[in-house]
Amino acid sequence: MNKENTSGQSGDLFSNLLGGIEKLVKLAEDLQKNSENISKEGEVDLSSIKDGLKANYSFTVKTAAGSASSNAASARPRTRPANKSAAKSDIVVPREIELDVDVFEEADAIKIFAQFSGVADQDIAVALNGDILEIDASSAQQHFRKEILLSKKVTGKIDRAFKNGVLELTLPLAAAS
């Protein structure tokens, strides 16, 4: 077994952290002395997590210097969308939710139950890709998604029923070889 000395790594991390805090304090002091504001916005590429995923950010640091001369309305905090184009186009991004499902293995089939809120039957897509069952469903406010690794081989036929927001899937087992 190969043991590595990590005390040097944690020491470097600790000194880097303290150095960063020291720089932040110095920056705050300089801002207060010069009555300056800092604004920054940008985009972070998160394609290493999910292909095409990006995050927008925006922040402004304002000092209290000079706020006494400004009126109360301008002294209130203001917010705005980080993505300026999104504010103009009324884009609504539904939140994605991983479905909670119940999986039952019976003698002749695998049964799966999934509960949906605010989704109609026609908005639910079910696909079988090899030994993975994929369930996707969308409404205006949210997107449901679940991939289920099946423990046994199935025939490929999917019997489906949807009642009172509960989707019931029956996947007949393939004949044993």
Descriptive overview:
The protein is α+β, with helices and mostly antiparallel strands and 177 residues long. It folds into 3 domains: 7-35; 37-91, no CATH class; 95-172, Immunoglobulin-like, CATH 2.60.40. It has 3 helices and 10 strands. The chain has helices at 7-34, 72-75, 84-89, and strands at 38-45, 54-61, 95-98, 101-105, 109-115, 124-129, 132-138, 142-149, 159-163, 166-172. It has a 4-stranded mixed beta sheet with strand order 3-8-7-6, with no helix packed on it. Strands 4-5-10-9 form a 4-stranded antiparallel beta sheet, with no helix packed on it. A hairpin with a 3-residue loop joins strand 7 (132-138) and strand 8 (142-149). The longest helix has 28 residues, at 7-34. The protein is elongated and about 75 Å long. The two termini are 43 Å apart.
List the helices and strands and how they pair.
Layout: H1 7-34, E1 38-45, E2 54-61, H2 72-75, H3 84-89, E3 95-98, E4 101-105, E5 109-115, E6 124-129, E7 132-138, E8 142-149, E9 159-163, E10 166-172
Parallel strand pairs: 3-8
Antiparallel strand pairs: 1-2, 4-5, 5-10, 6-7, 7-8, 9-10
Brief rundown of the structure:
This protein is of the alpha+beta class and 177 residues long. It has 3 domains: 7-35; 37-91, no CATH class; 95-172, Immunoglobulin-like (Sandwich), CATH 2.60.40.790.
